[in-house]
Amino acid sequence: MEEKLTLFKNRKRFGIEKNIDIIFKNTALVLSSFVAIILLGIILVVFFQSFESFSRYGLKFLVTSEWNPVKDEYGAFTAIYGTLVTSFLSLLITIPLGVGTAIFITEDFVPKVFREIIGSFVELLAAIPSVVLGLWAIFVMEPSFRAFFVFLHNFFGWIPLFSTEPTGRNSFLAILILVVMLLPIVTSISRDSLNQVPKKLRNAAYGIGASRWKTIFSVILPAALSGIMAGVLLALGRAMGETMAVTMIIGNSNAFSWSLLSPGYTISSMLANQFGEADGSQVSSLFYAAFVLMILSLVVNIFAQWLVKKFSLKY
Amino acid sequence: MNSLYYQKRLSRNIGDKFFTSLSVICALIAILPLIFLVTYILIKGGSQITPELFTLEPNPPGDDLDAGGINPALIGTLIITTIASIIAIPVGVGGGIYLAEYSKGGVFSRFIRFGVNVLAGVPSIIAGVFIYALVVSTKILFGSMYSGLAGGMALSILMLPTVIKTTDEGLKLVPNELRYASLGVGASMYTTILKVTLPSAFRSIATGVVLGIARAAGETAPLIFTALFSYYYITGFGDLFYEMGSLAVLIYNFALEPYDAQNKLAWAASFILVLSILSVNIFSRVLAAFTEKTKRV
């Protein structure tokens, strides 16, 4: 009995080891909270730096497009409009292309080897840096689309979107390069969610006599919709924050125009262009614009995450 | 009797054909420009590669026919990405360990996982703006403003979510039996993590981290007003506190120059950047496929 008790007492760990264990756990805890600290830090720092501009211009900043460092007049409407227009229009082109490609990859139109090669190729493209895409856009895309833009202007010039004479870099090119960047995201996420739809749903649809595309439209796509939507929203967030390729090809002009064939601006390209040389209240105004961009992308991202949680597949 | 055979004229079959060809067209429209893009970058950039490229400084833009090389930018990219890794990997792996091994799915861990996803979605230029406000404009790093160190810090913010996520997910894939066995023979929690779970998740974590580093190496937006750019050789440790060039910023700056020589340098830098990023990606993919196959056997 006595012997057993001492044995029991000795089963305690050594003090040092115990302390190491506790230190290890707390270090990991502190390191994981860094994420929250950085995130809150970004929001707070950008907000406080933009405070001067915010208190001076208020919400007027969002709806005027004067940007004049000499007169100290700032308004980011052109950039905000540019950000929204380029990202939404590029998404409008990307969604059918990306989902169509994803369906092509998940259906058995061609042997599996080809589909896997195409799938991984598309994913590899997501790894190409955006600055390289910008370089490509400047030297290859812009010259080869010039004739197309002239055609658009000549025949559809009465539509406000094509109302200006095309002169080199413009918003339309920015939209096209965004399509190239978003396509891998939308395709790979759509492919993943299409693959997750259980096989028995497809078999059931085939069993009651549905054709292949009837099955895709009425069974598979609705079942995968939440995942596809989340991918689309992620792509939207990416499009709004995308900087380099857009900055290099959009032409960077703060003059507001409805036309896609005239040079434009986005918030991120404004930041990339002006931040290095700005001083005084211009810096604060740029921080204000950055804050707007951050809020936009935060809202889109949080909504995407909520969507995934709320409507994730329940099979 | 006839109705048992496939009938081409049926509207459902015509519709099916139509949509099938539509999806093939989608795939072609999506893939062909992308193939064109990659081959163009590789051919156009590859034709600019010379030995001097790796050893010389770039000449300042002007009418010079000879643009020089990209040595400072190449070394700069290596240094800045290394700084970013030194910051992001310990923090990320530590945070991932907490999420996967210690947290019990409570409010805190759910908030952190949510934060990781949100941080991953923060536009890369915002990371640059943040470091500019925190480090560059305050001159907090021993009075230096634009510096390679600041650039590395900005990149580390972009790497952090990737590292945490891959660590978290890699550790979650380790079977619980391993943990029970280790704890059962009397190992403490930290020994279990360091000696058992981390090593068995090592490959998946390493793959994710390497892909994260490759992605960070191509990021430009966070660097254009933190590390800025430099034309000069990196000679010593002290250069960390001054403006530092990088391949990505070199491409951006020189693509916008009106001179042909600088544009060619941008293409050459793109070639090196794209080739290294793609080969890291392909290598890790092949490695992952290979290990999966051996596991099944």
Automatic annotation (TrEMBL), chain B:
Q: So which domain of life are we looking at? A: Bacteria
Subcellular location(s): the record lists:
Cell membrane
Domain ABC transmembrane type-1 spans what residues? Answer: 74-284
Give the transmembrane region(s): 21-43, 73-99, 111-134, 140-160, 240-259, 265-288
Cite the entry's keywords alphabetically: Cell membrane, Membrane, Phosphate transport, Transmembrane, Transmembrane helix, Transport
Name the source organism: Prochlorococcus marinus str. MIT 9401
Q: Which GO terms describe its cellular component?
A: plasma membrane
Question: Which CDD domains does UniProt cross-reference here?
Answer: TM_PBP2 (cd06261)
Q: Report the membrane topology from the UniProt record.
A: Multi-pass membrane protein
Q: Name one GO biological process term.
A: phosphate ion transmembrane transport
Matching InterPro entries: MetI-like, MetI-like_sf, Phosphate_PstA, Phosphate_transprt_permease
Molecular function in Gene Ontology: phosphate transmembrane transporter activity
Using the UniProt record, give the first listed, main subcellular location: membrane
- Name used for this protein in its record: Phosphate transport system permease protein PstA
Pfam families hit by this protein: BPD_transp_1
Which family does this protein fall into?
A: Belongs to the binding-protein-dependent transport system permease family. CysTW subfamily.
